[in-house]
Every structure is written in structure tokens, then in C-alpha cells.
Amino acid sequence: MSDDTIRLVTIGRMIRRRWRLLTILAVLGALVGYGTSLLLPPRYTTSASVLLPGAWEERELLTQAEIATSSVVVDRAAATLGWTGVSGSELRDRVSAKAADGNIIKISGTAETPERAQHLSDQVAQQFVTFAARLTGADTGAEASARPEDLRKMVVRTSRRITELADAADPGRTVESVQGRTELEKLRIALQEAMKKLDEANPVTNKSNMVVMGPAARPAGEAPPTRTQLIVAGALLFLLLAVIGHLTAARMSRRLRTEPEIAAALGSVLLGTVDVPGERPAHRPEGGGPRARIRRLLGLDVRWDLPTPHASGDEAGRQIRYRRVCARLRDRLPRPRRLLVVVPEGDEIARRAADQLAAESDGDSAPSSSGRGYPVLRVVGVSVSQPLVPDRGTESGVLVVLSAGSWTAAELTGIAEACADGNHEVVGVVVAGAVRARPKRSGGHPPDDATPALAVRGHATGGAV
Fold first, then answer.
1. How far is the first Cα of the chain from the last one, in angstroms, to the nearest whole number?
2. pLDDT of residue 68 exceeding 70
3. Which of 46, 193, 218, 227 has the fewest CB atoms within 10 Å, counting from its CB?
4. How is it placed in the membrane, per its record (predicted)?
5. Is 357 exposed, middle or buried (0-12, 13-18, 19+ CB in 10 A)?
């Protein structure tokens, strides 16, 4: 799988074969999320709305939202609330503001109880309106609000005085009188323009008349993340980490999966591949002890990264494969002799294939007329961690049988070195693969390809090839 693309079918196969482990990890993640919810106190959030009259640009609304959460506003709200042990700097983390449609600033407050959240939002909104009014000078009292009207009255009186002076001047008789009337008229026009600008400035000044649109609503539920959300998030997080861990481990796996790689690691030649009908449970070595029982309970003794076995042919077709391997093995030997069939411990598929090869070899172990019968095979299991092959005695050679995708190059090299230490030559390699056996036919008639298989059997028994 190290070079394969990760597909949905791969993830589905992993979930099917590791569902017990994934379920336990998801439950563990849910417990972690529940424990986290106990450490985090519940939070409640509500909002108060402040209306800004007049025409406002978007950047101005963003500025007002920043002012609403400024330290000046929040500190004044904290001083007014007077909560024990809660300072303005702590409240700044609980207050937020954003500009909404319709020139509205929404001020949100978060607290441990619904009542506190409501009071916090209302107080910050009130302090924001007060502070904004002070910035624009809208709260300087009745005297300040009367100043524009007094200015208008003064301008009107000045305009009347200018008219009186213009009428009193000698109308057009001297140059000085004409210049005086001209200057007075310019002064009148300047005063009128000033009053016009003052009237146009009134709407901008009215922007400071912000209004709090009622008290904040009391929150009915907790603010996220709630306890349920933390539990679900913990379960999903552990499940996702388990899936990613499985995929990463499979992608970094160095187990050999192709026949040429396996033969090269053992320093021998490939004699063929054989099929072994898969049985349920597959790849489940028997063993005692608590660790073995826990692995079987969690499904860790089943390889999940191996592809689903493909459908095999009938029993006669599988027998042909075994006989062909025995025939190639016989052709490689100068004379019939005894061989060790080395199988890595824990490789149940290879063990069954080796037993089948030994049975086929025993069926035709007698030398033929040409003196070339099948060799006699004896199956032995070898530990991969500490490989040890029996010394050379009656057997003079080794046939290695193993399944693909189960062992690394270093492990197979260790087996080859153990064979060399026992003064054995690795005469060949056989790769076994699991297949799904077809159901037996209900009728008594043999399949169409059974006749060639029987003919091969009789031909091999006769000894002539």
C-alpha cells in the first residue's frame, strides 16, 4: 500500500476490519470531551443593539464597533457592574461588537449565567452610547445645545445692522459710499453662507444621538461549545486520528508485496504462486495470554491493509497450481531428495499452503522410471524475530513458503541467513495468496475442468513429464 493511492474502498475495508478498535477509540474520545466540558464552565451569550441615526459609511460603522469594545468603554462598564474579581481586562475577552445592516451595532456579552450576560451587554451598550456622545460634544448640557440658536440670532441682528448701514450711506454719490456698500454686501453674503454651512452641519452632529434599542434578551441556552458539542467533537477527533494513523502506518509500511521483491530478498528464484481458500477468521493465529486475547477482541490480529481476496476457481484448478510448483521444484533438483519447507511463524496462509505442498509431494514421492520423483517435504516454522533453521541432516535444501505483504526485506534476509547458517541452500520460493472459495456444487456431476486435473494427476504419478 506504500505506493497505492488511498481510496474510499481502502478506508471502508479498514473500518470493516477495525470497527471494534475504532468504536473503543471513539468512546474514549467522547469521554475526553465530557471531561473537558466539566473543566470548562458553561457560558451564555446575548446581544444588545445600538441604532446610529443618519447616514454612515461602512468604515465609520467599523470604527464605531471598535469603539464599543475599547478599553475605555469596557472599563467603565466593569466599574458600573462592580462584579467581584472581574476586571475590565477580563471583560474585554467576553465582549464583542459588529456592524449589522441598517446602521446597527450589535454588542455581545458572555458570562457564566444568563442574568450576568444580559447585564453585561446592556451596560456596555449604555457606556458606548455615553462615550460616543462625549466624543462629539453632544452631552455638554443645555447651554451648549443653545449656542447654535444664539449664533443664528446674532447673525440675523448683524444682517439687519448691515442693511441699516447700507441705507444710511450716501447711495452712489461718492466713491467711498459705493465701496462701503459693496463691502457691507460682501459681509452679508459671507454671513449667509456661514449660516448655510451651519445648517448643513446639523445632520452630522445629529449622528451622535445614538439609541439603545431595548434591553438585551436573556439567553435560553449555553453558548458553544456546549457539553454535547465537546463530546461529539472528542469522539470525531479520536476517530479521525485513528483513521489517519492507520493510513499513515500502511503508507509507510515496508512489507514486500510483489513476487520479484520477495525472491530477491531471499536470494532465490520464484517457483510459482498458489491459492489458499480463505477461512473465517483469516490470519488469526492461536495464542494464549491476556495480550493475545485483547488483540483478538480488538481485531488487531487481522491485517486490514491486505486487499479482499478474489474469487478462486474450483479445487481442481488449485490442485494444478500445487502440482506445477512440485514439478518445477523437481526439475531444479539433480536427484530426488528431502527438503525443508520453511514457513514464517504467524503466517497461517503460508502454513496451509506448505501443508498442501507436502501432501502433494507425498502423493508422488516415489522415483519414476527416470529416477526423478517429487522431493520429500517437511514443514517447519521459523520465528521471524529470531530465525533458526534446523541443521542439515537428512534434508539438503530449503523451500520458503510465505504470503505476500506480510514481511519486510530485512525479515526475509534474516530467514535466508538462518538457512545459510544451517548449511541449507534456498532452492526456491513459493508465494501463497488467500482466495474466496466458491460454494460446492449441489449436483453430483464434476465440473468441466475436473477431467484435465485428474489427467495431470495420473500423468504425474506415472513419473513421465
1. 40
2. yes
3. 193
4. Multi-pass membrane protein
5. buried
